[in-house]
Specification:
By secondary structure, the protein is mostly beta strands. The chain contains one helix and three strands, in the order E-E-H-E. The protein binds zinc ion (ZN).
Length: about 80
């Protein structure tokens, strides 16, 4: 009898990002493009590596989903994967 694995939700990892301007904490499944409180625009994680490796990608396409991120992608003190 085949054992069934529990279905894993695609987006069960949560990105927690602190705004470096106003301190507002965001809880999202996709990197926030700007602060929901003060409107400060954010760059995507690994921005410079991404723009040099794939010049055809749109700016909005550079913001990663939580499932595509690992601890080494994060900026310590501003991001946490939960
Ligand atoms: Zn802010």
């Amino acid at each position: 009898m085949k054992e069934t694995e529990p279905k894993k939700l695609k987006q069960d990892k949560l990105i927690m990002k602190l705004c470096h301007k106003c301190g507002h904490c965001h809880e999202t499944h996709v990197e926030p493009e700007k602060c929901q409180k003060c409107g400060k625009a954010f760059l995507p994680l690994n921005y410079f590596a991404k723009i040099h490796s794939d010049k055809t990608q749109t700016f909005q396409g550079l913001f990663a989903e939580s499932e595509d991120l690992a601890e080494e992608d994060l900026i310590k003190g501003l991001y946490v994967l939960w």
